[in-house]
Amino acid sequence: MPLLDIQHLTVTYGNVQAVRDVSVTLETGEILGVVGESGSGKSTLGYAVTKLLRPPGAIQSGRVLFEGTDLVSTLESDLRKKRWTEISVVMQSGMNALNPVATIRRQFEDAIIAHQPTGQSRMKERVAEMLKMVNIDPRYADNYPHELSGGMKQRISIALALVLEPKLIIFDEPTTALDVVVQRFIVQNLKTLRSQYHFSALFISHDLGTVLEIADRVAVMYAGKFVEIQPSGQLLRAPKHPYTQALLQCFPDPRSDQINIVGIPGTPPDLSVVQPGCAFAPRCSQVMTRCLTESLAFVEVAGAGVACHRAGLTEEVKQHG
Ligand SMILES: Nc1ncnc2c1ncn2[C@@H]1O[C@H](COP(=O)(O)OP(=O)(O)OP(=O)(O)O)[C@@H](O)[C@H]1O
Ligand SMILES: [Mg+2]
């Protein structure tokens, strides 16, 4: 049984359909990257999974099975018991999610006391351990968030998300607000933590480079839908969807001295209308007539999939010689 099994999830904000019939599974210990342009529905997906959507955001249909239990129909009181202990979230600009009027120590202790109470001395040890784990000197435990740098606050948010050793962590743009050096440091740090803690994660980012570095598989999201999922290496070597191909051209190849960054012309569609055909068709350099009229469903088979009429054609050509 997968740890997380998202089935036909649709999420709306009034008439805006931000997540559209998304299905995907996450295995125990796996990191699934979710990448896409601003407004593609990444955060909405992350918040829907944990049921932390703010109104008017609402799950319209679908199921989110966590270890076989549907979170969509789970009562808020039962969900609250699972948050932090089984599922935790590092929010987009998480460094601002820290409580400004409590010391770092207090924030760790509050989480521990609420869910897994333990003695004072053990708690002190635990806070020090958690800070060291993200390479922060434990003497900062008695500081307030505003006394620390952005990178330190973000690492503390990550340590907080890990303190009760949850099985699943949702990272929403955990490094986006930081400079490149700090970003790289945090990604390296996360890789080490993952080998110690064996958590599974949804790692959301609009930065394909970061996602490729940390994730086992990558889901590419466009206009509320997944258009392609592949193991990271394969996505980098042989992207199938024209949107993925275009995204890959938007960041420089570190192995090449040529820098040739191509933007993607056009803008994403208005999510308050549901149009026939492929949502990427108006911007696609390989568009065919059927792309404008025939929708196609994304199907994940053995952890991978692509929703493109053209990708389907090449498969057919391969199969029939
Ligand atoms: N509170 C809200 N009310 C109405 N529409 C919203 C709300 N929050 C998000 N949306 C819309 O839902 C769509 C998806 O937004 P979402 O924040 O999930 O995208 P994202 O991929 O996380 O983008 P970003 O990279 O900018 O964080 C967007 O079109 C956005 O305008
Ligand atoms: Mg977002």
Automatic annotation (TrEMBL):
Q: Which UniProt keywords apply?
A: ATP-binding, Nucleotide-binding, Transport
Task: Determine the domain of life of the protein's source.
Answer: Bacteria
> Does ATP-binding appear among the keywords?
yes
**InterPro entries, alphabetically?**
AAA+_ATPase, ABC_transporter-like_ATP-bd, ABC_transporter-like_CS, Oligopep_ABC_C, P-loop_NTPase
GO terms assigned for molecular function: ATP binding; ATP hydrolysis activity
Query: What is an annotated GO biological process for this record, any one?
Result: peptide transport
Residues forming the ABC transporter domain are: 4-248
Which residue spans traverse the membrane? none
An example of a Pfam family matching this protein is oligo_HPY
Query: Into which family does the record put it?
Result: Belongs to the ABC transporter superfamily.
Q: What name has this protein been given in UniProt?
A: ABC transporter domain-containing protein
Q: List the source organism.
A: Sulfobacillus benefaciens
